Amino acid sequence: MEAAVDFEPKIVAFLCNWCTYTGADLAGVSRIQYPSNIRPIRVMCSGSVDPMYILKALLDGADGVLVGGCHAGDCHYVNGNYKARRRLAVLQEVLDESGIGCDRVWFRFISASEGALFAETVHEMVDSLKRLGPNPLKAIWFA
Amino acid sequence: MNNLVIPVGEEGRTRALNEVLGKLLELGVVDAMMVPTMVTPGVITYLLARDPEFARSKAEPFAPVMPVNGASFVAKVVSKKPKGKVCALLKPCEVRALTELVKLKQAEADNLLVIGIDCLGTVARGEYEKAYPDVDRLSVREACKVCLNPDPPDTAFAGINIGYIGLDDGRCLLASLSPDLDDRIRGVIEELGFEKGDGLADQRQAALAVLKEERGNSYEEFLRKTHAEQDDGGVCGIAKLLAACVGCRNCRVACPVCYCRECIFDGDVFEYETRQLLERAEKKGGLKIPGETLLYHLTRMNHMSLSCVACGMCEEACPVDIRLFPLFARIARRTQGIMEYTPGRSPEDPLPFTTFREDELEPR
Fold it and tell me: Which A positions 4-43 lie with beta carbon below 8 A of chain B?
């Protein structure tokens, strides 16, 4: 796609305070380069991310939303990440059925020690969104 | 299940069932009874009866109208543990919604007797009122035509189910008493001297099996058709479908399982200042007012679709006739499908968002 070359996707990232946010911080202090397309929002737990926040970001023009939580069994609040996984799975069904598509919302388990994985995830997501192109919801004024 | 036959005499099935309902109040095994009633000709609502004569003369258990999913009313009546025993006569989708509300801790089931009753569909409230008493020609609502559960769930509550499907000649009703039914109530009903009706119960089950298979096929067809009508391969389809939304939130009020006392959409979060609205409008060149229609409906789908009992009351409540039922039915089937959850089936099935398995839903 020609147009996609100049397109820089905007990603809103909801990152768990205990794991992924700290992982993102580690990527920073380790001087690992990753694209600046990401707008991180620190949340206390991926389980606290109501699907409404994700939908609002998408409907207000974000091209992608990344939710980052702790690895299985590592949740600071015991099982918030497992519950987030269920919420996100339901959200994906809603997105898919409504034609928005589920490729713009990613849920990843990234720990506090995985700075490199965080950077790699952002790279992958930016590439994937570039291929997808801009979020079509941006253009719909009556949504 | 203990199956008893309630004979229906010359005066009809309403009279026959009301006699039993009146007896429950008269003998003091229940203290109040919530039943559909007709307040003025053609207008159906609910009645909380304490006087047995009131129940006998005013209950309309077979009225083919559901102005509201009665589960919401039951939840209001028994939101805190009632002192007396409250009985509620409910249609299958009302029983299922109530089951969800009990699991969501919005209703207290301990002192509640639920009498579920077969339902072959309800007609739109307004149509019924206009046509009354000439109501036989009316056809049932779209949601009812494809309803997969015309019978109340067996396992929902330790109550009584009243059946008539498959008992074609209309000369009897079948009362199925749950094995866990309160002994006092069981005693009172058994003393009424009804005959055992296990044969009729089998006959009803056979008829239900046939009906459910037919409904299952038409449901699939209905979902396919409505999906094709909406789908444009992208997001425009659903945005167009919902574009007429005036933001009244009636669908949320009418939804029996949308239970929050205060909805996020009524809070300050969505109270924009002029400046914010202008900025938002500037981004796209202009905005539909009221805005965030799609956000509201998609959020609701995330919050309630797992408990959606497909009663279709959302669509009934819509003042601008948006076809919400097929949309919510499709979403609900998918979300309930991945969670392997059937809302209203049993109080024992945990709500999907309250539990998890360590090994599931991968890859994310």
Answer: none
Domain of A107 in residue numbering reads as: 11-136
**Into how many domains does chain A fold?**
1
Contact between B335 and A94 using a beta-carbon 8 Å cutoff: yes
- Is A35 part of a structural domain of the chain? yes
SS3 for B83? Answer: coil
Per-residue pLDDT, averaged over B244-267, amounts to: 95
Assess if residue A40 is contained within a domain: yes
Q: Does A140 touch chain B (CB under 8 A)?
A: yes
CATH code: domain of residue A126: 3.40.50
Q: Which residues of A touch B284 (CB under 8 A)?
A: 138-141
Q: Is the pLDDT of residue B294 over 60?
A: yes
Supply the angle between the helices A20-29 and A115-132 in degrees, to the nearest 10.
Answer: 100
Integer angstrom CA distances of residue B224 from A34, B327, B333: 43, 11, 12
What integer pLDDT is reported at residue A5 of this predicted model? Answer: 60
Give pLDDT tens digits for B217-237. 999 999 999 999 888 777 888
Let me know if residue A141 belongs to a domain: no
Beta strands at B2-7 and B172-177: parallel, antiparallel or unpaired: antiparallel
Residue A2 in domain:
no
Quick check: A19 pLDDT over 90? yes
Instruction: Kindly tell me if the per-residue pLDDT of B85 is higher than 80.
Output: yes
Cβ distance B295 to A100 less than 8 Å, yes or no, reads no
Q: What is the per-residue pLDDT for B81?
A: 77
Phi/psi region, residue B251 (left: phi>0; alpha: psi -120 to 50; beta: rest), is alpha
